[in-house]
Amino acid sequence: MAKNEIGVLGHISVKITIAIAIAVVALIVILLHIFVPSARKELEFAIAVIGGATAIYAGYYTALSIRMHSERQKRRSSFEALAPLSNIDMAKIRTLVEKEIKPKDISPEELYHKIMDDHNLYSAVNSLLGLFEDISIGIQKDYFDEEVLFYSLGYMVPWYFDGLRHFIDQERKADSYLYWDTEKLATAWRSHKSLMTGKTYEFTC
User: Fold this and answer.
1) What is the DSSP letter of 199?
2) Phi, psi of 2 (to 5 degrees)
3) Which helix (H) or strand (E) element contains residue 110?
Protein backbone atom coordinates (compact mmCIF):
# COMPACT_ATOMS: atom_id res chain seq x y z
CA MET A 1 0.00 0.00 0.00
CA ALA A 2 1.36 3.40 -0.99
CA LYS A 3 1.95 5.77 1.94
CA ASN A 4 0.34 8.77 0.14
CA GLU A 5 -3.06 7.06 -0.28
CA ILE A 6 -4.95 8.91 2.41
CA GLY A 7 -8.05 7.19 3.70
CA VAL A 8 -7.20 3.85 2.08
CA LEU A 9 -7.18 1.01 4.59
CA GLY A 10 -5.95 -1.66 2.23
CA HIS A 11 -6.27 -3.42 -1.11
CA ILE A 12 -7.96 -6.70 -1.92
CA SER A 13 -7.74 -8.88 -5.00
CA VAL A 14 -10.85 -10.83 -5.95
CA LYS A 15 -10.82 -13.53 -8.61
CA ILE A 16 -14.16 -13.50 -10.41
CA THR A 17 -14.87 -16.89 -11.98
CA ILE A 18 -17.53 -17.74 -14.51
CA ALA A 19 -19.43 -19.57 -11.77
CA ILE A 20 -19.46 -16.46 -9.57
CA ALA A 21 -20.61 -14.27 -12.46
CA ILE A 22 -23.49 -16.64 -13.26
CA ALA A 23 -24.44 -16.80 -9.58
CA VAL A 24 -24.48 -12.99 -9.27
CA VAL A 25 -26.61 -12.57 -12.39
CA ALA A 26 -28.96 -15.30 -11.18
CA LEU A 27 -29.29 -13.58 -7.80
CA ILE A 28 -30.13 -10.26 -9.50
CA VAL A 29 -32.79 -11.96 -11.63
CA ILE A 30 -34.28 -13.65 -8.56
CA LEU A 31 -34.44 -10.36 -6.66
CA LEU A 32 -36.05 -8.61 -9.62
CA HIS A 33 -38.55 -11.45 -9.94
CA ILE A 34 -39.50 -11.04 -6.27
CA PHE A 35 -39.52 -7.28 -5.93
CA VAL A 36 -40.56 -6.19 -9.43
CA PRO A 37 -43.63 -8.33 -10.26
CA SER A 38 -44.38 -6.27 -13.36
CA ALA A 39 -41.13 -7.43 -14.95
CA ARG A 40 -41.66 -11.14 -14.39
CA LYS A 41 -42.70 -11.87 -17.95
CA GLU A 42 -39.63 -10.15 -19.35
CA LEU A 43 -37.47 -12.02 -16.86
CA GLU A 44 -38.57 -15.39 -18.22
CA PHE A 45 -36.18 -14.99 -21.15
CA ALA A 46 -33.33 -14.01 -18.82
CA ILE A 47 -34.03 -17.06 -16.67
CA ALA A 48 -33.90 -19.31 -19.72
CA VAL A 49 -30.60 -17.75 -20.81
CA ILE A 50 -29.09 -18.18 -17.35
CA GLY A 51 -30.24 -21.79 -17.27
CA GLY A 52 -28.65 -22.44 -20.63
CA ALA A 53 -25.42 -20.69 -19.64
CA THR A 54 -25.28 -22.72 -16.44
CA ALA A 55 -25.70 -25.97 -18.36
CA ILE A 56 -23.00 -24.99 -20.86
CA TYR A 57 -20.60 -23.99 -18.09
CA ALA A 58 -21.26 -27.24 -16.21
CA GLY A 59 -20.44 -29.23 -19.35
CA TYR A 60 -17.31 -27.15 -19.99
CA TYR A 61 -16.13 -27.49 -16.40
CA THR A 62 -16.71 -31.24 -16.41
CA ALA A 63 -14.83 -31.71 -19.69
CA LEU A 64 -11.94 -29.55 -18.48
CA SER A 65 -11.76 -31.46 -15.19
CA ILE A 66 -11.67 -34.79 -17.03
CA ARG A 67 -8.94 -33.49 -19.35
CA MET A 68 -6.81 -32.21 -16.46
CA HIS A 69 -7.22 -35.51 -14.61
CA SER A 70 -6.23 -37.41 -17.75
CA GLU A 71 -3.10 -35.27 -18.22
CA ARG A 72 -2.06 -35.76 -14.59
CA GLN A 73 -2.58 -39.50 -14.93
CA LYS A 74 -0.45 -39.59 -18.08
CA ARG A 75 2.37 -37.75 -16.31
CA ARG A 76 2.12 -40.11 -13.36
CA SER A 77 2.26 -43.12 -15.69
CA SER A 78 5.29 -41.60 -17.44
CA PHE A 79 7.27 -41.33 -14.22
CA GLU A 80 6.26 -44.87 -13.33
CA ALA A 81 7.62 -46.02 -16.71
CA LEU A 82 10.92 -44.29 -15.95
CA ALA A 83 11.28 -45.94 -12.53
CA PRO A 84 12.83 -49.22 -13.82
CA LEU A 85 15.72 -47.28 -15.35
CA SER A 86 16.78 -46.18 -11.87
CA ASN A 87 16.76 -49.53 -10.12
CA ILE A 88 19.98 -51.47 -9.49
CA ASP A 89 19.32 -54.26 -11.99
CA MET A 90 18.62 -51.87 -14.86
CA ALA A 91 21.62 -49.73 -13.90
CA LYS A 92 23.81 -52.83 -14.26
CA ILE A 93 22.20 -53.61 -17.62
CA ARG A 94 22.81 -50.10 -18.90
CA THR A 95 26.42 -50.17 -17.72
CA LEU A 96 27.00 -53.51 -19.40
CA VAL A 97 25.52 -52.37 -22.71
CA GLU A 98 27.17 -48.94 -22.68
CA LYS A 99 30.59 -50.49 -22.07
CA GLU A 100 30.25 -52.53 -25.25
CA ILE A 101 28.81 -49.92 -27.63
CA LYS A 102 30.97 -46.97 -26.58
CA PRO A 103 34.33 -48.15 -28.05
CA LYS A 104 34.94 -46.82 -31.56
CA ASP A 105 37.45 -49.51 -32.51
CA ILE A 106 34.90 -52.34 -32.68
CA SER A 107 33.01 -52.93 -35.90
CA PRO A 108 29.22 -53.39 -35.94
CA GLU A 109 29.73 -57.01 -37.01
CA GLU A 110 32.12 -57.68 -34.14
CA LEU A 111 29.68 -56.10 -31.70
CA TYR A 112 26.88 -58.28 -33.03
CA HIS A 113 28.87 -61.49 -32.52
CA LYS A 114 29.99 -60.31 -29.09
CA ILE A 115 26.38 -59.81 -28.05
CA MET A 116 25.30 -63.17 -29.48
CA ASP A 117 28.16 -65.00 -27.75
CA ASP A 118 27.45 -63.49 -24.33
CA HIS A 119 24.13 -64.59 -22.83
CA ASN A 120 24.16 -61.87 -20.16
CA LEU A 121 24.92 -59.16 -22.70
CA TYR A 122 22.26 -60.50 -25.07
CA SER A 123 19.67 -60.43 -22.28
CA ALA A 124 20.73 -56.93 -21.24
CA VAL A 125 20.42 -55.56 -24.78
CA ASN A 126 16.97 -57.05 -25.28
CA SER A 127 15.76 -55.89 -21.85
CA LEU A 128 16.76 -52.32 -22.61
CA LEU A 129 15.36 -52.27 -26.13
CA GLY A 130 12.20 -53.97 -24.88
CA LEU A 131 11.67 -51.21 -22.32
CA PHE A 132 12.06 -48.56 -25.03
CA GLU A 133 9.60 -50.49 -27.20
CA ASP A 134 6.99 -50.48 -24.43
CA ILE A 135 7.52 -46.75 -23.85
CA SER A 136 7.09 -46.00 -27.56
CA ILE A 137 3.87 -48.03 -27.74
CA GLY A 138 2.58 -46.33 -24.59
CA ILE A 139 3.21 -42.92 -26.15
CA GLN A 140 1.42 -43.89 -29.35
CA LYS A 141 -1.56 -45.19 -27.38
CA ASP A 142 -1.73 -41.87 -25.48
CA TYR A 143 -0.96 -43.63 -22.20
CA PHE A 144 2.20 -41.61 -21.47
CA ASP A 145 3.10 -37.93 -21.58
CA GLU A 146 5.66 -37.85 -24.39
CA GLU A 147 7.19 -34.53 -23.36
CA VAL A 148 7.97 -35.80 -19.85
CA LEU A 149 9.65 -38.89 -21.30
CA PHE A 150 11.57 -36.91 -23.92
CA TYR A 151 13.24 -34.68 -21.36
CA SER A 152 14.39 -37.79 -19.52
CA LEU A 153 15.17 -40.16 -22.40
CA GLY A 154 15.45 -37.86 -25.43
CA TYR A 155 19.18 -38.50 -25.78
CA MET A 156 19.28 -42.04 -24.44
CA VAL A 157 16.83 -43.74 -26.82
CA PRO A 158 18.46 -42.60 -30.10
CA TRP A 159 21.94 -43.23 -28.69
CA TYR A 160 21.26 -46.83 -27.71
CA PHE A 161 19.30 -47.53 -30.89
CA ASP A 162 22.04 -46.18 -33.15
CA GLY A 163 24.73 -48.04 -31.22
CA LEU A 164 22.81 -51.31 -31.54
CA ARG A 165 21.54 -50.74 -35.07
CA HIS A 166 23.55 -53.53 -36.69
CA PHE A 167 22.45 -56.01 -34.00
CA ILE A 168 18.82 -55.00 -34.57
CA ASP A 169 19.16 -55.32 -38.36
CA GLN A 170 20.58 -58.82 -37.99
CA GLU A 171 17.82 -59.86 -35.59
CA ARG A 172 15.21 -58.50 -38.01
CA LYS A 173 16.14 -61.21 -40.49
CA ALA A 174 14.00 -63.46 -38.33
CA ASP A 175 11.40 -60.81 -37.39
CA SER A 176 11.20 -57.79 -39.68
CA TYR A 177 9.11 -55.82 -37.17
CA LEU A 178 11.44 -56.29 -34.21
CA TYR A 179 11.85 -53.02 -32.26
CA TRP A 180 9.92 -51.21 -34.98
CA ASP A 181 8.30 -48.83 -32.49
CA THR A 182 11.63 -48.14 -30.82
CA GLU A 183 13.02 -47.09 -34.19
CA LYS A 184 10.09 -44.72 -34.78
CA LEU A 185 10.69 -43.14 -31.38
CA ALA A 186 14.47 -42.89 -31.88
CA THR A 187 13.99 -41.30 -35.32
CA ALA A 188 11.64 -38.62 -33.96
CA TRP A 189 13.63 -37.86 -30.83
CA ARG A 190 16.94 -37.74 -32.69
CA SER A 191 15.58 -34.64 -34.41
CA HIS A 192 14.07 -33.33 -31.15
CA LYS A 193 10.60 -33.93 -32.59
CA SER A 194 7.50 -35.34 -30.98
CA LEU A 195 6.65 -38.80 -32.28
CA MET A 196 2.93 -38.00 -32.11
CA THR A 197 2.62 -34.35 -33.14
CA GLY A 198 5.92 -33.37 -34.77
CA LYS A 199 6.30 -30.60 -32.20
CA THR A 200 9.90 -29.50 -31.61
CA TYR A 201 11.35 -30.15 -28.16
CA GLU A 202 14.27 -28.15 -26.81
CA PHE A 203 16.62 -29.30 -24.08
CA THR A 204 16.93 -26.63 -21.41
CA CYS A 205 19.90 -26.11 -19.11
Assistant:
1) P
2) -70, 140
3) helix 108-117
pLDDT tens-digit readout, 105-139: 788 899 999 999 999 999 999 999 999 999 999 99
Q: What is the pLDDT of residue 196?
A: 94
Which of 104, 184, 121, 192 lies closest to 155, judged by CA? 192
SS3 content of the chain, % helix, strand, coil (to 5): 70, 0, 25
57-64 mean pLDDT = 73
d(CA 140, CA 121): 29
Model pTM score:
0.69
SS3 200: strand
**Residues 142 and 74: beta-carbon distance below 8 Å:** yes
pLDDT score of 104 more than 80 = no
Rounded CA gap, 154 and 168, in Å? Answer: 20
3-state secondary structure of 193: strand
Bridge partners of 193, per DSSP, are 200
Cβ–Cβ under 8 Å, residues 182 and 129: yes
Name the pLDDT band for 159 (thresholds 50, 70, 90): very high
